[in-house]
Amino acid sequence: MKDDALLSPVQSPLLSSTAGNAIRHGYFTREGGVSDGIYRGLNVGLGSRDERSRVEENRARVSAWFGAPPEKLATVHQVHSPDAVIVNASYDGTRAEADALVTATPGLVIGVLSADCGPVLFADAEAGVIGAAHAGWKGALTGVLESTIEAMISLGARRERIAASLGPSISRRNYEVGTEFVERFLEKDPAYAVFFTPSTREGHAMFDLPGLTTRRLTDAGVIAENLDLCTYADEERFFSYRRTTHRSEPDYGRQISAISIREA
């Protein structure tokens, strides 16, 4: 069995039904990687303190799953920004500071890393344009999803044809925040109160990041889906920054969600 055959990424029913065979995608789990310890499995985080050779092997397995060489796996240096970059056949491995990628180049695999923040994969199969966005609370609030959609439109996508699927992210039941956090959202839009419910701890609330993300997507006019998978609760399959923090562990792994246009 080839190494990439050990991988079993989660598939989006929405993307699979709308994109057909033209586009391949996957929300990769920890399964099938070579890292161990707190990074056990498919840790693809270049910013982690995992052994570099293991991270590179894990990333190579992801690209091989798409039938692409490692240099065709494009990612960015994620900084919780609203910025999206367009990549094409001239991609040279440089990781720009941004939180989303868009391409119309067949054979190029674009991906975002996450460990609680929401990975969103986008596709307009008819136009042959795809996107991948890393939507933490800050990126979602400041416009990374909308930036991704606009970048796709600039390459020929149509807003009403774009399908967007939110992958594994931390759920409301495991995302406790303080009052200052809540106030920041309500200052932006009082209607965002719907994404907060009282916590059992006084002065705290539980935040629905997936709810905010899907609302922003539907408000932007695209077809949206939430896979409803919680990174914090499912340790067997997913890395989680918050779970690591609660355990006082020194570092954490990152999973990848990626998408590619098949070459003819």
Fraction of residues in helix: 10-25%
What is the helix/strand order? Answer: HEHEEEEEEHHEEHEEHEHE
Task: Please indicate the count of domains.
Answer: 1
CATH homologous superfamily caption: CNF1/YfiH-like putative cysteine hydrolases
Shape: globular
Quote the beta fraction: 15-25%
Q: Strand order across the biggest sheet?
A: 3-4-7-6-8-12
Structure classification: alpha+beta
Termini Cα gap: 26 Å
Q: How large, in whole angstroms, is the Cα Rg?
A: 18 Å
Low-confidence stretches: none
What's the structural blueprint in terms of helices and strands?
Layout: H1 13-19, E1 23-27, H2 52-65, E2 73-74, E3 84-86, E4 100-103, E5 109-114, E6 118-124, E7 129-135, H3 137-142, H4 144-154, E8 163-166, E9 176-178, H5 179-188, E10 196-198, E11 204-207, H6 209-219, E12 223-226, H7 241-246, E13 255-261
Parallel strand pairs: 2-5, 3-4, 8-12
Antiparallel strand pairs: 1-13, 4-7, 5-13, 6-7, 6-8, 9-11, 10-11
Please explain how this structure is put together.
With 264 residues, this protein is α+β, with helices and mostly antiparallel strands. The strands form 3 sheets. Strands 3-4-7-6-8-12 form a 6-stranded mixed β-sheet, with helices on both faces. A hairpin with a 5-residue loop joins strand 10 (196-198) and strand 11. The mean pLDDT is 97. Helix content is 25%, strand content 22%. It has one domain: CNF1/YfiH-like putative cysteine hydrolases (4-Layer Sandwich), CATH 3.60.140.
